[in-house]
Design brief:
Order of helices and strands: HHHHHHHHHHHHHHH
Radius of gyration: 22 Å
Strand content: under 5%
Low-confidence stretches: 391-397
Shape: globular
Oligomer: single chain
Mean pLDDT: 89
Structural class: mainly alpha
Helix content: over 70%
Largest sheet: none
Number of helices: 15
Distance between the termini: 46 Å
Length: about 400
Amino acid sequence: MSINSMIFLTAFLPVVFVLDRLCVRKTALKNILLLLASLVVYAWGEPIYIVLLLVSIAANYGIGLLLGCQRDESVAAKTVLAAGILVNLGILGYYKYFDFFLRIVNRLTGSEHEMRNIPLPIGISFFTFGAISYLMDLYRGHYEAEKNPLNMALYLSFFPKISVGPIARYRDFAPQLTSRQETVEKTAEGIRRFAYGLGKKVLVANIVGASVDKIYAQDITNVTGVMVWCAAILYAIQIYYDFSGFTDMAIGLGKMFGFDICENFNYPYLSGSIQEFWRRWHISLSSWFRDYLYIPLGGNRKGKIRTYLNLAIVFFATGLWHGATTAFIAWGALHGFFIIVERIGFKKILDKIGFLRYVYTGLVVLFGWVIFRVANLQPALQYIRRNSKRSATSWWS
């Protein structure tokens, strides 16, 4: 069940909201209600995958308890942490990347293994990354292991954020599980934020997206240079208003039930560099990769070459996280390349050229969105190459 669907808006949300308010000052009862509501939302479209979510919850709860029994940074603790990460990545890898890697094996070996076409469970990337962050911060000693399985279940399955994020950290979410306030002011702010996000999604993203779909549905030989630029710009608008709209709805829903969910966007198209863009775009994901991949790899503490390698790995993973095709990997590599170039010294030049730095950032981002939207590397590059040649001659046609 999507949080912008009519059944959610007209039936599910009002009922859950009223029941929540009837549980006056009974946080434990409210948590049970929200957990049941979250499981209903998750099971609505694909009931079979509720089993997968429950398995993930149980596995991470148990691994967390086991990890909490170990001495800090002991060999046993490292072993338990590694096992927990492998379990989570194994679940994510099977459902999201099995066919992708099987295609690679087929190409490299000349074999013809049949694709399984495994349906992608809703929100698997978000709740898996949430679980990994819980285990890694537990290993680092930021908090004690969660003893209440219902709290762990609500953290991983909370319906406002499970399908489209943001990726909430347990250390921010846990205190709110036992102590939060549902005030009139906070509820009003939540309703306003939810309505704002719903408007961004329905009134902007969906309408603009229909135009983008029509352009990309054309045969490539019929697409002019003007259409190429229009599609790229419109898609940049669509994806921002779509994703940030869902984030606003998630934050608003959280506030309506007393929770504060982290912000995920900060006017990314006002960025003057690709580095700045990733400090403003999908903040919960970029900070996740920084804290749980880039820093563990060594960050910038082991010399320039190692830093650039670490950044390349992070943006390879960023691209792969978004989708199991070479196009998404290329999109991540594109951003990683320009971030490395900026760290090498180009950022100093950008700081001196004023307005042109925003033009540079916009062009890189737009080029990346073309690859992201087509979602298949070869057609995307063919699309850009053929139509970039036609842009100059067809611009005024």
